[in-house]
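re: the backbone from monday

yeah here it is again, tokenized this time
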């Protein structure tokens, strides 16, 4: 609890020291925010740069291998005779190609939390920067004749600002392959992988959340870990994951993805996972 100054009428000056001591601010110092270290890591860490660069180098190396092997596919949803289909990669957007850590920094400094409204306002500034290595990888994939499909949980009304932000950073956008969240089941990522794998051989999946790779990942933390381990051979090969310690289903799984809970209730549930 932080103490702060309050306005006190003159006739109440005798009780002012008491009020001074008792009135607590509704906000807290940013240093108390549960996301401060993760946001600083993403915003300033040389390791964040290095991790992303490493991921995209692996992506480029595996792209060559994948192109040469007609049996190679990254999508578990891909079935049938897909060897002659044109090649594509499917990439998430936020914290995969667009870096929103400045938005998260504002959440920390204002001791706030993510809301769709504030995130949409941030997106409309078109101020996200590029995740290191992402532009060069997209350019390389396109130069090899690979279609780049972007699929994101960003909502459909953010299409224009997302396109502008991406194009300004050097990501060419074909609207047909900018797949956003229109809140229908058909915009879920596993569904999109299923549909796109009928048209393309999916060489790589690139993302920062387990759902960017595999279906049924919005479960509890042990089940998510089991799912990641079940596909151990795919990481760094067909599946390229970008580090995101700021948010994601790894975080919401800690409180059962229950967005109805208060912030305090969510934090309590999260802290229980420290007892092992
Ligand atoms: Mg993402």
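seq for it, each position gets an aa:
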């Amino acid at each position: 609890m932080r103490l702060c100054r309050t306005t006190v009428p003159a006739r109440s000056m005798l009780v002012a020291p008491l009020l001074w001591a008792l009135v607590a601010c509704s906000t807290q110092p940013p240093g108390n925010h549960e996301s401060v270290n993760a946001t600083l890591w993403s915003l300033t860490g040389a390791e964040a740069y290095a991790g992303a660069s490493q991921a995209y180098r692996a992506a480029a190396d595996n792209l060559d291998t994948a192109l040469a092997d007609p049996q190679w596919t990254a999508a578990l949803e891909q079935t049938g005779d897909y060897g002659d289909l044109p090649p594509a990669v499917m990439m998430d957007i936020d914290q995969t190609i667009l870096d929103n850590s400045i938005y998260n920094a504002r959440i920390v400094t204002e001791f706030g939390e993510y809301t769709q409204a504030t995130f949409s306002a941030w997106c409309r500034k078109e101020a996200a920067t590029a995740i290191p290595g992402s532009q060069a990888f997209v350019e390389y994939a396109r130069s090899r004749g690979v279609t780049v499909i972007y699929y994101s949980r960003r909502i459909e009304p953010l299409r224009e600002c997302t396109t502008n932000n991406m194009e300004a950073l050097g990501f060419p956008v074909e609207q047909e392959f900018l797949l956003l969240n229109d809140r229908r089941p058909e915009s879920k990522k596993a569904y999109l992988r299923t549909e796109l794998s009928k048209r393309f051989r999916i060489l790589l999946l690139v993302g920062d959340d387990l759902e960017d790779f595999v279906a049924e990942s919005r479960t509890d933390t042990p089940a998510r870990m089991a799912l990641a381990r079940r596909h151990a051979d795919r990481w760094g090969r067909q599946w390229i994951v970008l580090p995101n310690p700021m948010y994601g289903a790894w975080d919401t799984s800690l409180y059962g993805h229950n967005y109805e809970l208060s912030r305090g209730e969510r934090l309590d549930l999260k802290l229980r996972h420290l007892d092992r």
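The domain at 8-275 is CATH 3.40.50.1000 (Rossmann fold). The first strand starts at residue 87 and ends at 91.
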